[in-house]
Write a structure and sequence with these properties.
Haloacetate dehalogenase H-1, Rossmann fold, single chain, alpha/beta, haloacetate dehalogenase activity, hydrolase, 15 helices, 8-stranded mixed sheet, AB_hydrolase_fold
């Protein structure tokens, strides 16, 4: 297999936007989705093992990395998780994968959640890293969670205030968010950090991340509430993992919240904080191999 950073970043038209991705490996298809404020490079440490067992598609979400960055909209629909999920379904179908597995972190895991609800026929199983369902996290917010996840409430403020401040020094913002977790920036390789910083300097990045969070606090919650009222649930197997030193596990009963919205949930804590694929790659791979069935 080709080393992760030696692989070309390919670009595809999907759902009306350009989506960037790296692709390699063999076997059943596995869609890999990253979180904030990063890119698909979060998977570089687990990539060699994953690609031995799966055809891996590591994509940048719209608004992030090298994917297209749509303009802001009043209803934030262009950055809703429903729209982001449709991007990924179109990407995978365009590559010939009508049915696939998902491994996703943070914002990407929120996209995966909506994808599996809207397109259940496409997803065989999914492993989600360090999130509980978005609706429950907002409704269960405490002072402790708000302090740990301050950016949830700052990025959703009306434009252009947060964008203007981020664009003044996007690398400072990125390093502040990533370095503010337990362990600081020591978890990240120089090559990966250079990639995240390059992506943060791109025009439209600040708008993309703010709109992602604004959508999660508005239109996404409307979709979630309507879906729950209609009885929608995840029917495929779900594995939910979180960092034992992170804010999600400290502030929420992760498994209980997922079991309230899904039929088949397993999981538990991993020995990290938040950026688990980079902090504890061996633990993530062990869980993934067990869950997806190559161990």
């Amino acid at each position: 297999m080709t080393a992760f950073f030696d692989l070309p970043v390919r670009r595809f038209r999907a759902n009306g936007v350009e989506i960037a991705a790296r692709i390699d490996g063999s076997g059943p298809p596995l869609l890999l989705l990253h979180g904030h404020p990063q890119t698909h490079a979060i998977w570089h440490r687990v990539w060699p093992e994953l690609t031995r067992h799966r055809t891996c598609v590591a994509a940048d979400l719209r608004g992030y990395g090298d994917s297209e960055k749509p303009a802001a909209s009043a209803d934030h629909a262009a950055h809703s998780k429903r729209t982001m999920a449709a991007d990924m379904v179109a990407l995978m179908r365009g590559l010939g994968h009508d049915h696939f597995e998902i491994l996703a972190h943070d914002r990407g895991a929120r996209v995966a959640h909506r994808l599996a609800l809207d397109h259940p026929e496409a997803v065989s199983r999914m492993m989600l890293l360090d999130i509980a369902p978005t609706l429950d996290m907002y409704e269960g917010t405490t002072r402790a969670f708000a302090q740990a996840y301050f950016h949830w409430f700052w990025l959703i403020q009306p434009a252009p205030a947060p964008e203007t401040m981020i664009e003044h020094d996007p690398v400072f913002y990125l390093r502040s968010v990533m370095g503010g977790r337990p362990g600081g920036l020591a978890h990240f390789s120089a090559e990966a950090m250079a990639e995240y910083e390059r992506a943060a300097r791109q025009p439209g990045w600040a708008t993309g991340i703010c709109e992602d969070y604004r959508a999660s606090a508005t239109i996404d919650l409307d979709h979630d509430k309507a879906g729950r009222a209609a009885g929608e649930r995840l029917r495929m197997p779900v594995r939910a993992m979180w960092g034992e030193r992170g804010a999600v596990g400290r502030n929420f009963d992760v498994l209980a919240l997922w079991r309230a919205v899904a039929d088949d949930v397993t999981g538990g804590p991993l020995p990290g904080a938040h950026y688990l694929a980079e902090e504890t790659p061996d633990a993530v791979l062990a869980e993934a191999g067990n869950f997806f069935g190559w161990r």
